[in-house]
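Re-run with default settings, no changes from the original entry. Doing this only to confirm the output is reproducible before filing.
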Amino acid sequence: MSGTGTEADAVPAGPGGGGGAGRRAAVLGSPIAHSLSPVLHRAAYAELGLEGWTYGRFEVAEDGIGPFLEKAAADGDWAGLSLTMPLKRAVIPLLDGIGDTAASVEAVNTVVFAGGGRLLGENTDIPGMVAALRERGAGSVPGAAVLGAGATASSALAALARVCTGEVTAYVRSRERAEEMRGWGERLGVPVTTADWSRAREALTAPLVIATTPAGATDDLAGDVPGRPGILFDVLYEPWPTPLAAAWAGRGGRVVGGLDLLVHQAVLQVELMTGCSPAPLAAMRAAGEAALAGRAGAGRAG
């Protein structure tokens, strides 16, 4: 689906609609119905006392991002946008400028409506990932392994450039993906070696393991968690815990989850869009945890 659409609880009906006395923001992507961003941002607005601010959720495919930005810019009351796949790279040619972090991985997850009608892009995934790691005591590690080689994996390498002092091994499923990861490593200044996915069990002995794969992809590794594991960063947040994360915690290892990443990157988005700093991390995390618990309860009830 391209263009704009709304969920049932999105307050305005898309760019061009009345936004009230406050400002407007939203998350765009396709699919988008699962996104927790509205829960997190609305919790921040409530905690910060930003009356009249609204945060919606819109189904927008690649061919719809241009028209959406055009209408939003003309409307005049938009503060910012959060972007998910498939828009993180598609939006770049439509912006007036992007930050260095976004440029380093060619991915924008945040658009800010700046003065003079300018549209500026940033990437809060990478500093959010670093903040989530540091919160769990992983501010510096001697080596790391990355499971997977998609868009999140390149962000993981950018984060590792800030926290890893040694070599990174990426476990991938094809020669093409291996070449891509080595290329990202060279670009980001991270020494990257690659190994075939068939050897992924070897990754679990690394001081830090970052799992960037879709749901189910690492389930078969849960039985191979070592007796004294290091730190696991599993970027998934639903369903949670993943079998790998559960096994890791069961062996006494430290686990950083996808909700940690989601909250930390959203904190930075709120600060960029509202100008209010610091954003209320604790309130946003509590709202996210409650929303996930509600979904899990509804699933069991169904």
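The longest strand covers residues 24-29. The two ends are 28 Å apart (CA to CA).
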